[in-house]
Specification:
This protein is an alpha/beta fold and 630 residues long.
């Protein structure tokens, strides 16, 4: 590159860095006790380096545009403005709908960087405080760079998460030779015990953790990418598929394997494999106990959650990789069993297409990180790339002839509320997701779960900027936090082939249910002793009574809420009607011999609960159907 180009790039980087530093000083002023802006800039730039180019560009353009506003209002950039001038710029920007929306996105990035840095010492100290619950499992994993260009096997499984892992285990233990292809890499417990939290978070998730479903409102959708898939970074919460859901899948979708009498033994096997048990009270933490206390004062049903975490000590780091190997993801059970039966895993390889020959599957083609290709030839292909990645793979393979491929997406949208308690809660001292309030679940599809995040990494609910935001952060240890999910209609779709795009608009019904979720969460927190509730509702972010809470709900618009989701399902659903369902009731792709799907995309509808156990149960059942034809 010519020296002038290098100089221009260096100058642009300098301008971007100064813009970010000024923005951080405005959001979290050091004069008021905020962190050193230069230190946070370094962490933020590192976090942005993991993101796709559009996210990196948006972060820098957002900072530049806010600095331009400062120049317009004050004649100074944020970096050179006085604290009062910065405060006035922030106030003017957040007073408009557009400015508030831009600021929310920027604030999320800054709080992630600042929080992970300020809490990194505490996180790493907690990680190292006790011995590991178990060593890393023995798994046959070969990085794609060391894998031969062409190999042959009986079955290729695409994806090593909840669905792919148990399918591979079942098929390998039945005597078939199995190769699993995984886009992510294998992580060790030592890396979770020593890695900086921002690096762990950004590396363990697809798109650096920035996957978003586009719509009104946009929905943040973190999706794990590692050997073990999302089970490496989920909360470990386990629910058996509700009987009403199974009966609906059987009767409305024609998914015969969902018949409770047939399916429950598969759920029993998953429950045993994962070693599921209720969260012990001695490690639950105050956050979960307050949720139970508030619910019971209302006369509502509440209890500790069931989790696959034997040996958990409540360090609250599930979302960035368990530093004790206590959370029992499939990288610690199903994949080791599959390996013991002869299955091999190719990591860091993205499957570009399913190979076809004479109207049936012949294997897969995958690309290494250096762009070179590998081929794994097999007469059977099990697609378990995940709900958002399986439809694009079928399109790249020209197997998307069915009009419903990519449609029928449900996400299990969620909102969060927080209650300020008089005594410290320290929500991150305990289990990340620890107890549930199920009172509204059967009738309204609303499930409340006491949920925290790793310390310093979950401040989206906090209102304000500048001095006010610093004060809110200083009092974060007094907040009890709840997350609430609604069993949603299948109103989204996944488009694209080489690059996934997720489109999702809340239905009117689901939007109203999210507002009811905020109301219910606020009532539980107030009953538990909260002096105020942070609702996340623009203009009504802080309420101090049920009357104020009801008023906030009455004036809220679902499209303005901060919504996240964690359980995408349904994009290649199985059922009896060939016009509605791309898969037949055995999980086989219609119109093509030798291709099955075994991940969350198979589920006909939202399962109404955290779906890991449901996905694994269906995958075992589908593997059984494959073996019938082997």
């Amino acid at each position: 590159m010519p020296p002038t180009s290098n100089l221009k790039r260096s100058q642009a980087a300098g301008i971007a860095g100064r813009s970010l530093q000024g923005l951080i000083a405005a959001l979290l002023p050091p004069e008021e006790g905020g962190p050193d802006p230069a230190t946070v800039v370094g962490v933020l730039e590192r976090f942005l380096s993991y993101q796709p180019p559009p996210i990196r560009l948006a972060g820098h353009l957002g900072a530049l545009s806010i600095n331009a506003a400062s120049l317009l209002f004050n004649g100074r950039t944020l970096a050179s403005a006085s604290p009062d001038q910065r405060e006035k710029v922030m106030a003017r920007l957040t007073s408009t709908v557009v400015g508030s929306g831009v600021m929310d996105g920027i604030k999320a990035l800054v709080l992630m960087a600042a929080g992970s840095e300020s809490a990194s010492t505490e996180i790493l100290a907690a990680a190292a405080a006790t011995e590991t619950a178990r060593p890393d499992a023995v798994i046959d994993v070969t990085p794609a760079g060391s894998w031969p260009s062409t190999t042959h096997t009986d079955v290729v499984v695409i994806g090593s998460g909840a669905g792919g892992a148990v399918a591979a285990m079942e098929l390998a233990e039945a005597g078939l030779s199995v190769v699993i292809v995984e886009e992510g890499r294998r992580w060790t417990v030592d890396e979770f015990r020593t890695g900086h939290p921002v690096d762990r978070y950004a590396s363990l998730y697809r798109d650096g953790g920035s996957t978003v479903a586009l719509g009104l409102p946009p929905v943040v959708l973190p999706i794990g990418r590692a050997v073990g898939g999302t089970t490496v970074v989920n909360s470990g919460t386990c629910f058996r598929t509700p009987r009403s859901v199974l009966e609906s899948w059987r009767d409305k979708a024609g998914l015969t394997m969902a018949d409770p009498a047939f399916f429950n033994p598969f759920l029993d096997r998953v429950w045993s494999l994962l070693q599921v048990a209720p969260v012990p009270l001695d490690i639950m933490g105050n956050n979960g106990k307050l949720a139970i206390e508030g619910a019971r004062k209302l006369g509502w049903a509440a209890a500790p959650l069931d989790r696959n975490a034997p040996g958990c000590d409540g360090c609250c780091q599930c979302a960035i990789g368990c530093p004790r190997n206590a959370k029992f993801g499939v990288h610690l059970n199903a994949l080791p069993r599959a390996s013991a039966a002869g299955a091999r895993i190719v990591s860091e390889a993205r499957v570009t297409k399913i190979l076809l020959e004479g109207g049936r599957a012949a294997g897969v083609e995958a690309v290494r990180s250096d762009g070179s290709l590998i081929k794994i030839m097999a007469p059977r292909v099990v697609v378990a790339a995940g709900t958002t990645e399986t439809p694009p793979l079928l399109r790249r393979s020209r197997l998307n002839w069915h009009p419903m491929v990519g449609k029928n997406l449900a996400l299990h949208p969620a909102v969060g509320v927080a209650g300020r308690m008089e005594e410290p809660v320290v929500a991150w001292h305990g289990v990340l997701q620890s107890s549930s309030v199920s009172e509204l679940h059967a009738e309204q599809g609303i499930m409340l779960e006491a949920t925290s995040t790793p310390p310093g990494m979950g401040s989206m609910v906090l209102p304000g900027v500048g001095r006010r935001l610093v004060e809110e952060l200083a009092g974060a240890d007094h907040l009890a936090t709840l997350g609430g999910m609604v069993a949603d209609e299948s109103s989204g779709r996944v488009v694209g082939a080489n690059r996934t795009t997720i489109l999702y608009n809340l239905s009117k019904r689901d939007g109203l249910r999210l507002l009811e979720t905020i109301r219910a969460g606020g009532k539980v927190l107030m009953a538990a002793g909260a002096t105020e509730v942070l609702t996340g509702i623009p203009g009504y972010s802080r309420v101090r009574s049920e009357v104020e809470l009801d008023d906030a709900i009455a004036h809220a618009r679902p499209r303005d809420l901060h919504v996240a989701a964690f359980h995408p399902v349904g994009t290649v659903a199985a059922g009896s009607d060939p016009e509605r369902y791309p898969l037949d009731p055995s999980g086989a792709l219609r119109g093509m011999s030798g291709v099955w799907v075994a991940d969350g995309s198979v589920l006909p509808t939202c399962p109404a609960v955290n779906p890991q156990v449901s996905i694994m149960g269906l995958s075992l059942a589908i593997a059984g159907e494959i073996l019938k034809k082997a």
